Amino acid sequence: MATLADVARRAGVSQATASRIINGSAKPVTERLRVRVLAAVEELQYVPNAHAQSLARSQRSAIGVIVHDVSDPYFAEITRGLQRVATEHGRLVIICNSYRHPERELEYVELLRAQQAAAIILAGSGYHDAQFTRSLNSKLQVYERTGGRVTVIGRHQHASDAVMPANESGGYLLGAELFRLGHREIGVIAGPRLLTTTTDRLAGLRRAARDYSRPLRHVAYADFDRDGGAAAAASLLAQRPQLTAIAALNDSMAIGALAYLRSAKIEVPAQISVIGFDDMPIARDVTPALTTVRLPLAEIGARAMTMALDDSLRDRPPRIEEIGCEIVRRESTAPPP
Amino acid sequence: MATLADVARRAGVSQATASRIINGSAKPVTERLRVRVLAAVEELQYVPNAHAQSLARSQRSAIGVIVHDVSDPYFAEITRGLQRVATEHGRLVIICNSYRHPERELEYVELLRAQQAAAIILAGSGYHDAQFTRSLNSKLQVYERTGGRVTVIGRHQHASDAVMPANESGGYLLGAELFRLGHREIGVIAGPRLLTTTTDRLAGLRRAARDYSRPLRHVAYADFDRDGGAAAAASLLAQRPQLTAIAALNDSMAIGALAYLRSAKIEVPAQISVIGFDDMPIARDVTPALTTVRLPLAEIGARAMTMALDDSLRDRPPRIEEIGCEIVRRESTAPPP
DNA sequence: TCAACCTGGGAAAGGGCTTTCTTCAGCTAC
DNA sequence: GTAGCTGAAGAAAGCCCTTTCCCAGGTTGA
Question: What are the HTH lacI-type domain coordinates in residue numbering (chains A, B) (predicted)?
Answer without folding.
Answer: 2-57
